[in-house]
Specification:
Its EC number is 2.7.7.65. It comes from Halomonas lysinitropha. With 538 residues, the protein is an alpha+beta fold. The protein folds into four domains: 128 residues, 2-Layer Sandwich (Beta-Lactamase), CATH 3.30.450.20; 97 residues, Beta-Lactamase; 109 residues, PAS domain (Beta-Lactamase, 2-Layer Sandwich); 160 residues, Alpha-Beta Plaits, CATH 3.30.70. Helix content is 40%, strand content 29%. Strands 1, 2, 3, 4, 5 and 6 form a six-stranded mixed sheet that branches. A hairpin with a 5-residue loop joins strand 12 and strand 13. Bound molecules: guanosine-5'-triphosphate. The site of guanosine-5'-triphosphate has 16 residues, from strand 17, helix 16 and helix 17.
């Protein structure tokens, strides 16, 4: 360790002339305060100063680059530990660049802090002005520039590369994946330059860098060398990766959907469709093949899938003009399917950027709904309309009679002594009787008549457009058909009869209940008169 006691202060101890007579530049630098503390005459020339006092007074921190500052900060603890650092530093005396081999060692200053004693051993190269500028550019560029020999051993690096990797760093050690580095070294034997994006090691941390590699020859030895330029692209790469992930997530969601999706841009070109869309319209090409297609043409060529082809196309145009979200349009297809279509315009920052169409096949859902409606209005034993359905239809007919001058009649049919059939032959045989009666009504009435099972063994028939006299004749015919029918039972075939009450629906009927009460009264009259007969009330 050098100290003030082992190297005397030149001014204080009168050794100044001796140090000044040396051809070797010597100076003492205060790293912390970024000031020169002493420089001999040879050093003054190097620093472009007239006198030692002027150099000591000079504000060096204002001209010091960040890279230099960083390099010196690294020196400080090493010097304090007694290390002697041999490195080259560049100086620019009188417009010439000199690379000086500097031997730096610890120097204890007056106040006890660590200073740096520098001995300039030998200067190596001097450069012309343009090389000097190039060197200066390299010194200041944030791009990391490193030079390796043909085997990947580091020769030199600029301050930015030095700051990124403090220790010695071979070509392989710069890369996170050594296999990548080795592959690149091999490729460089055949390729003069390579550009890539790679994960690099930067002070033990992984960063994405854009890396440019090129082959060159060492101007001093003529041997091959590799020049590597790198800059950090981690923020962009992180964003790109995040975008890729969300794009993939979206694709997974879109592909997993049952609904057919079609995304168009504002000029009606397809941006994206999914497989479900292709399936709905029997498109054999893969979804990617449709990208860029004109949607107007696509709509024209698929309009014949729909029962109303022109309506299908016209509605699309309408929605595009409105540019309002439309939850669902029902589209009936010629093959019996039903599609539900929804439209969503895409606005980004209040600007229109196209639209999304979603098509869902709702055929099964529609059939199921129709089935539920049918079940809710049908008697399960006979398949005839049930009481609820009877009431709805009877009300509609009564309204038509009242408002439209339509005439109508109503039959109430009740099986005679049905309890006895159940009691003697069993409930299952009784059911057969109910089904026979239902079939007799179903197959012997007009399509416009509505037979219903309104209770256990009670049936009604609404007969629009019929007078009670006409209905009476039909009732007698039905009655005879039922009486003549034979039911094949387990033990013995059996017959049964019915009693029928007939009434007309008149405009003066206040409600349908009034009409059914009259039919009921007529039916009970038939029962009282001996059953197996028709009675009329109006
Ligand atoms: N098998 C069968 N019987 C039913 C059903 N619904 C009602 N019944 C029966 O129908 C019978 C009706 O009996 P009642 O109302 O006493 O009249 P009835 O024996 O037909 O005598 P009248 O109407 O006076 O001629 C009862 O025994 C009920 O159990 C059904 O779904 N299946």
């Amino acid at each position: 360790m050098t100290s003030l006691h082992s190297i005397p202060q030149p001014a204080a101890h009168g050794h100044e002339p001796l140090l000044d007579r040396l051809q070797t530049p010597v100076w003492i630098f205060d790293i912390e305060q970024e000031r020169m503390r002493y420089a001999n005459t040879a050093a003054l020339r190097l620093w472009g100063a007239e006198t030692s006092q002027e150099l000591v007074a000079r504000d060096l921190s204002s001209t010091m680059s960040e890279a230099t500052r960083q390099r010196l900060a690294d020196y400080l603890p090493r010097l304090a530990k007694g290390e002697v650092i041999d490195e080259h530093w560049s100086f620019y005396p009188g417009g010439q660049a000199i690379s000086l081999h500097c031997r730096c060692s610890h120097y204890v200053m007056n106040d006890g802090r660590t200073g740096m004693l520098v001995e300039g051993l030998e200067s190596e190269i001097s450069l012309d002005a343009s090389s000097l500028r190039a060197l200066e550019a390299l010194r200041h560029t944030p791009m990391m520039v490193s030079v390796f020999d043909g085997q990947g051993r580091q020769l030199v690096r600029n301050p930015a590369a030095l700051a990124a990797r403090r220790g010695q760093s071979s070509f392989e050690a710069c890369f996170s994946d050594r296999d990548v580095a080795e592959g690149l070294l091999q490729r460089l034997e055949g390729e003069p330059r390579i550009s890539l994006e790679a994960i690099m090691q930067v002070d033990g941390v992984e960063r994405w860098h854009h890396v440019d590699l090129c082959r060159a020859n060492d101007p001093k030895t003529g041997r091959p060398m590799i020049v590597m330029g790198e800059f950090d692209i981690t923020p962009r790469k992180t964003l790109e990766i995040a975008q890729l992930v969300s794009k993939r997530q979206l694709e997974v969601v879109i592909e997993g959907l049952d609904a057919g999706l079609l995304l168009e841009d504002e000029s009606r070109r397809i941006i994206m469709v999914n497989q479900a869309f292709c399936d709905l319209f029997a498109i054999e090409a893969p979804p990617e093949a449709l990208v860029g297609m004109d949607c107007r043409e696509a709509a024209q060529s698929s309009k014949d899938f729909f029962i109303e082809p022109e309506g299908f196309v016209a509605r699309i145009e309408e929605l595009l003009v409105e540019q309002r979200k439309q939850a669902c349009d029902l589209l009936a297809m010629t093959d019996g399917r039903f599609l539900e279509r929804s439209y969503t315009p895409l606005f980004v920052a209040e600007e229109y950027h196209g639209h999304l169409w979603i098509y869902r096949d709702i055929t099964r859902q529609r059939r199921q709904e129709a089935d539920w409606v049918r079940k809710a209005s049908t008697d399960p034993l006979t398949g005839l309309a049930n009481r609820r359905s009877f009431e709805d239809s009877a009300k509609r007919v009564a309204t038509a009679v009242k408002e439209g001058g339509l005439q109508a009649a109503l039959l109430m049919i009740d099986i005679d002594r049905f309890k006895a059939i159940n009691d003697t032959l069993g409930h299952a045989e009784g059911d057969k009787g109910l089904r026979l009666l239902a079939d007799t009504l179903r197959y012997n009435l007009r399509d416009s008549d509505l037979p219903c099972r309104t209770g256990g063994e009670e049936f009604m028939v609404i007969m629009p457009g019929m007078t009670h006299e006409e209905a009476q004749a039909i009732a007698w015919r039905l009655l005879r058909q039922i009486a003549e029918a034979t039911i094949e039972a387990e033990e013995l075939p059996f017959h049964f009869t019915v009693s029928i009450g007939v009434t007309g629906v008149t405009p003066s009927d206040a409600s349908i209940e009034a009409v059914t009460q009259r039919a009921d009264a007529a039916m009970y009259q038939a029962k009282h008169e001996g059953r197996n007969r028709v009675a009329v009330r109006w």
